Amino acid sequence: MTRGDIESRGAGERSADSTPGTERTPRVAAARKLLRRAGRDRAGRFLVEGAQAVREALAAVTVHELFVTAVAAERHPELVEAAERSGARVSPVTDKAAAGLSETVTPQGIVAVCDLLDVPVATALAGVPGFVTVCDGISDPGNVGTVIRVADAAGCDAVLLAGDTVDPHNGKAVRASTGSVFHLPLARDRDAPAVVEMCRAAGLTTLVADGHGEVDLHDPAVTPTLAGPVAWILGSEAHGPSAEVHAAADHRVRVPIHGRAESLNLATAAAICLYATVGARAGVAPQLSPARD
């Protein structure tokens, strides 16, 4: 596909006007409102920026529209074609218009409009969940996206976003997840203690990651609990989970710090806790054979 194809070739829901849209074009202006949480919640849609994220979106959810510059269309013709095959409207835009839909320093010139991903908590916990991550009051979108990525890698059944946790459809959160927002159920509920109780009602033991918890993550007595159905609850780096969530959870588990570090960052703590469950479920691995020359 050449740079001119995006402006001239007719297909599917191709924009009727071959002239690239500008930042003042009504469809671009409407999409720009999705950069804010209020706009996303009102429209029920969000923006997905960048080639890799758009590729994941096209494979997983309904894409309503694809905004793409001529350069990006030339660089990623397979994404334009996939959008057309899915029935999405493909709208050529100027570089400036694409930049207006971007939250990055160096926009890639390709942005998709998708339906919001979150489902009710009850839906995310339907069936027999065995491994869930709960984010409580995490305000940094990069941290939320990274936790979703770790939860995906560890094989969690769902990620629940409780209390004042940032919207997982935030652009920075989506980018930090590297596509994992499309791989497992996400649910939002502002009543964090109620989310904990719903996890318990679903048969999950609720574990708060707390630097001052009464249970040591590495205590062998904890292994049977870690190997069972669990919901790990993670709070913000600054304050941790709320006092109400602490009280509602079954156990408060600390990751011991053996050196002089003041604390662990959230992404590191999340990986340690979630993979402790992965390890407990796997049991003790067989001893590796010595390397051969």
TrEMBL record:
Keywords: Methyltransferase, Transferase. Residues 47-120 form the RNA 2-O ribose methyltransferase substrate binding domain. Residues 1-27 are annotated as: Disordered. SUPFAM superfamilies: alpha/beta knot, L30e-like. Residues 1-16 have a biased composition (Basic and acidic residues). One of its GO terms (molecular function) is methyltransferase activity. It comes from the Bacteria. GO terms for biological process: methylation. InterPro entries: Alpha/beta_knot_MTases, MRM3-like_sub_bind, Ribosomal_eL30-like_sf, rRNA_Methyltransferase, SpoU_MeTrfase, SpoU_subst-bd, tRNA_m1G_MTases_N. Transmembrane segments: none annotated. It holds the Pfam family SpoU_methylase. Belongs to the class IV-like SAM-binding methyltransferase superfamily. RNA methyltransferase TrmH family. This is RNA methyltransferase.
